[in-house]
Amino acid sequence: MGLREQSYLILLALSQGPLHGYGVIKTVRELSEERVRLGAGTLYGALDRLSGDGLVVVVKEEVVSGRHRRYYDLTGHGRQVLAEETARLARLAATAQRRLSLQPGMGM
Questions:
Q1: Where's the Transcription regulator PadR N-terminal domain (predicted)?
Q2: CA Rg, the chain, in Å?
Q3: Residue spans per domain, the chain
Q4: pLDDT tens-digit readout, 47-79
Q5: Which strands make up the sheet holding 19-20, listed edge to edge?
Q6: How far is CA 27 from the centre of its chain?
Q7: Cα separations (Å) of 10 from 65, 87, 102?
Q8: Which stretches does DSSP call E strand in the chain?
Q9: Do the beta carbons of residue 61 and residue 70 sit within 8 Å?
Q10: What is the C-alpha to C-alpha distance for residues 90 and 92, in angstroms, rounded to an integer?
């Protein structure tokens, strides 16, 4: 079973290095071409689950303008899961392309 899309996008957002919550929200929006817009509650619930699964970890905490900010990063296991899920999705997309190109009138 693959990752939920939101979880996959969060891991992908963190693949370039640590981000705080708003950074993750912004990067997920960009990666999804504005299709996925995470609210704070959804994001932190997902980060808690991903942390509990050993995929992400808090690497830094600070207070900025009176607001508590946590920075999250992938663990080694998280990077491995992201790579495996990316390979699975690539195989699925390749299969879909082959199937679509075999349908009459759908040649590419």
A1: 10-84
A2: 17
A3: 5-96
A4: 999 999 999 999 999 998 988 899 999 999 999
A5: 19-20, 67-74, 56-64
A6: 9
A7: 25, 17, 34
A8: 19-20, 56-64, 67-74
A9: yes
A10: 5
Using 50, 70 and 90 to split pLDDT, how confident is the model at 96?
Answer: very high
Beta bridge partners of 63: 68
The mean pLDDT of 24-38, rounded to a whole number, is 97
Q: For the structural domain made of 5-96, what CATH number should be given?
A: 1.10.10.10
Whether the CA torsion 70, 74, 76, 81 is positive or negative: it is positive
| pTM reported for the whole predicted model | 0.88
Phi-psi region of 4 (alpha: psi -120 to 50; beta: other; left: phi over 0): beta
Pairwise CA distance, residues 19 & 82, whole Å? 16
